[in-house]
Amino acid sequence: MLNVEDWAEIRRLHRAEGVPIKEIARRLGIARNTVRAALRSDGPPSYQRASRGSVADAFEPQIRAQLAEWPRMPGPVIAQKIGWPYSMSPLKKLAALRPEYAGIDPVDRIVYEPGQIAQCDLWFPEPRIPVAAGQERVLPVLVMTLCFSRFLTATMIPSRQAGDILAGMWQLINGIGRVTKQLVWDRESAIGGTGRVSVPAAAFAGTLATKIVLAPPRDPEFKGMVERNNQFLETSFLPGRVFTSPADFNTQLDGWLARANNRTVRSIQGRPVELLETDYQAMLPLPPVAPSIGLNQRVRLGRDYYVRVDTVDYSVDPRMIGRFVDVTASPDEVTVFCDGQLVARHDRCWAKQVVVTDLAHQAAAALLRKNFAAERLRREVSGETRRHADGHVVAMRALPDYDALFGVDFTAPPTKASNT
């Protein structure tokens, strides 16, 4: 068969130098009809091998029967049902047949306007981070990407509870200084696990005057930009690093993000830090009042004077026992208030099932126990009458009074039970 080089030489000799067909055939050692065919062709010759078919062709009717009933049946299951005797490689034919039964779901290209959208997601890096009490945990990292400028920001948070996620979002948004008109999330349980934006997330978005948009189910392309950045963090940030604590992780991450946002992104032919100002000017200003974030609860303080936050127990001033206290936990600290008065402050512990005790609270509890025991002993020795808070005497009834009330007479002889 005539190759491309001879085809090009034939056309050059004939058209550029005017060499006759007979002479061209003699110079190149080919037939004159081959020369004529080369001159008549519109394009270079190409070789196409005749298809020999595939071993999957004989199974195509069975494959189609399975796909007609279950369009999304995985390939290994189809192979098992049709008695496939070969390796899975020839079953690539499924890729061409499946769209005929499962349908085609095309994805449109989107043009992002400045200040319009930020995509958010949780990334779970594989390394276990030392937290406290000798524990190591796999902790979530909140990742946020501004779609127009491709500006990337992220921070590690203690849990995937709504309060911690919202605290992380506020930290990242506050670091930028403004917020986009839409925040795109997947069906993260604390944000929109039911298909609707959760109450804490809706309150957060309402305070910022923005909107949380939930991605459709099973549609990772909807927020593909932040998904790709998760992979970027996995392959470019993690390798070769060792972390001693969540704070150390965030410190190293901040340094890496500064360099990452200075790189040139091919899709926008620019650097995120250079386009951030355009994004920033189109964003919404932050409200004067910060949104409600963190883990919040109101409980009555028990006798053990501890409150529980995310499986960790924190001590509280024992003088507040029996009263309602308000507990607020940010990623950094836990504070407890009673009637507006601060009664406990602790650094947030990211470990599990740990007891955090303030030595001042422990000493106060010991003093209260000592005073209580001394007062009780004094009353017993002096025979002092117990009184209520308003001063009236606490009535101490004799046990026979209760016998008379319920009609019980322990002085009467017992009666014999009759056999019936």
Q: Can you summarize this structure?
A:
This protein has helices spanning 4-16, 21-28, 32-40, 60-69, 75-82, 93-97, 99-102, 162-176, 189-192, 199-208, 224-237, 246-260, 272-282, 359-382, 399-405; strands at 117-123, 129-130, 136-137, 141-146, 152-156, 178-179, 182-185, 211-214, 284-285, 295-300, 306-309, 312-315, 324-329, 333-338, 341-347, 355-356.
Distance between the termini: 119 Å
Averaged pLDDT: 89
The gross shape turns out to be elongated
Q: What's the gyration radius in Å?
A: 39 Å
Overview features:
420 residues; alpha+beta; 5-stranded mixed β-sheet; 4-stranded antiparallel β-sheet; elongated
Provide the fold topology.
Blueprint lengths: L3 H13 L4 H8 L3 H9 L19 H10 L5 H8 L10 H5 L1 H4 L14 E7 L5 E2 L5 E2 L3 E6 L5 E5 L5 H15 L1 E2 L2 E4 L3 H4 L6 H10 L2 E4 L9 H14 L8 H15 L11 H11 L1 E2 L9 E6 L5 E4 L2 E4 L8 E6 L3 E6 L2 E7 L7 E2 L2 H24 L16 H7 L15
Parallel strand pairs: 1-7, 7-8, 12-16
Antiparallel strand pairs: 1-4, 2-3, 4-5, 6-9, 10-13, 11-12, 13-14, 14-15
Helix pairs in contact: 2-3, 4-5
